[in-house]
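Re: weekly structure request thread

Next one in the queue (317 aa):
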Amino acid sequence: MLKINIPLSVPKQSQLAYQKNYAALTNNSGNLLLIAGDQKIEHLNDDFFGAGITPEDASPEHLFKIAAGSKGGVLATQLGLVAQYGKDYQNIPYIIKLNGKTNIGINEEKNSSHCLWEITDVLNLKKQSGLKIIGIGYTLYLGGKYEAEMLATAAKAINEAHQNGLTAILWVYPRGKYIKEEDIHTIAGGAGVAACLGADFVKVKYPYSAKDKTSAAQKFNEVVLAAGKTKIICVGGTKRTPKEILDDLEKQITISKTAGIAIGRNLHQRSLGEVNRLNAAMGAIIFKGAKAKAAYSIYLNKKNPENKKTTKFLGLF
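Done, posted below.
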């Protein structure tokens, strides 16, 4: 049975709701497959239309189809998209992303500390719709001009979410002129900040460009230790091959001791058929502890990934 750490910020009357939401968030495993659908604001249409991107990705509904077929995945996106498409996808667990900014203009001049929606808006949509809205998400840029505002807003949002039995995830990215965003020691500092703010999970960068993959995974354990009871999920990064994704994911979970992945363009830029196979493969590693080689066999399966006869892992989802 999944053992859930209930923060003291969750009052007694909200503990059952929190336990249910945490179990739904992690597919009853304690680990997380987060489908990052918040990029519709962050990247505008750059990641959704063009050469090398499936035509299916031109529509926001592609994100919902991906999540619906993921068998254990959670969709993180804005409240407006959930309000528009949720009635057709009622079985998806949702994380509502509270803040964001576009990629137009000078990044340093943008103050994205303010929430686009409040926790009360999230709770109202959850109550009115009956959807599986299980938590909130917030992006925090450390080292930026608006760091103080973001810290205060994130702290308040996490506490209010917990008060109402919701889970809370932070996206934490150190940003600045002289900051190396893939420096493990710096990333660990950001993970520690997420722990101080009380987040349940924190999404952080990972040094995918490192030449020695095993050594990088070993060093990345510093990030996991710095986060304490706040669990680490790594960004999906730039476009990579499925084999690379699965190999890195296995190392992150088995060597670094992370708790999953938050993946966006490496999913939605692919066709739904391919995405379903990739999600099944990642799910085998995240939820069942499969090795990358076995998971890649699941990805290569051109048939329904639920077919038990093709591999011993396929019937577990």
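The chain has one domain: 12-316. Residues 304-317 have pLDDT under 50 and may be disordered.
Next request, please.
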